[in-house]
């Protein structure tokens, strides 16, 4: 029976050792899990911060794009109006030159052949 008792004691010691090894491995795994959970929390926080920043940048960008579109519209309208002014000025100049020529002819002394 002593042999069986010794064998039982050996099995018992091995079982205790296996259980202790499993507990140690579980504790090591638990540390890794906690580290990864902490990293996950940091990453989620960073994502939240970056998402908020992205939202602000998108809002600012939309505002600036609208402002630029307004500048483009104003510039286009102003250039079109300026072109109309140039065309009118050119027409006025042509009319003025024609009238000046007509007035010059009208104010020339008439020759005696014209009578």
Task: Describe the model.
It is built from one helix and no strands. The protein is mainly alpha-helical and 115 residues long. The chain starts with a helix and ends in an 8-residue tail after the last helix. The mean pLDDT is 93.
| Structural class by secondary-structure content | mainly alpha
Order of helices and strands: H
Shape: rod-shaped
Mean pLDDT: 93
Strand content: under 5%
- DSSP strand tally: 0
Please give the alpha-carbon distance between the first and last residues: 166 Å
> What's the multimeric state?
single chain
Poorly predicted regions: none
**Percentage of residues assigned to helices:** over 70%
Summarize the structure.
The chain is mostly helical and 115 residues long. It has one helix spanning 2-107.
Describe the SSE topology.
Layout: H1 2-107
Features:
single chain, mainly alpha, 1 helix, 115 residues
């Amino acid at each position: 029976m002593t042999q069986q008792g010794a064998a039982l004691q050996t099995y018992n010691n091995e079982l205790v050792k296996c259980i202790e090894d499993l507990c140690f491995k579980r504790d090591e795994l638990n540390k890794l899990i906690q580290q990864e959970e902490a990293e996950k929390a940091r990453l989620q926080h960073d994502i939240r911060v970056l998402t908020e920043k992205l939202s602000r940048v998108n809002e600012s960008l939309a505002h600036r794009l609208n402002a630029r579109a307004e500048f483009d519209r104003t510039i286009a309208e102003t250039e079109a109006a300026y072109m109309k002014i140039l065309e009118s000025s050119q027409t006025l100049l042509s009319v003025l030159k024609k009238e000046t020529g007509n007035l010059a002819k009208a104010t020339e002394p008439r020759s005696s052949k014209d009578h």
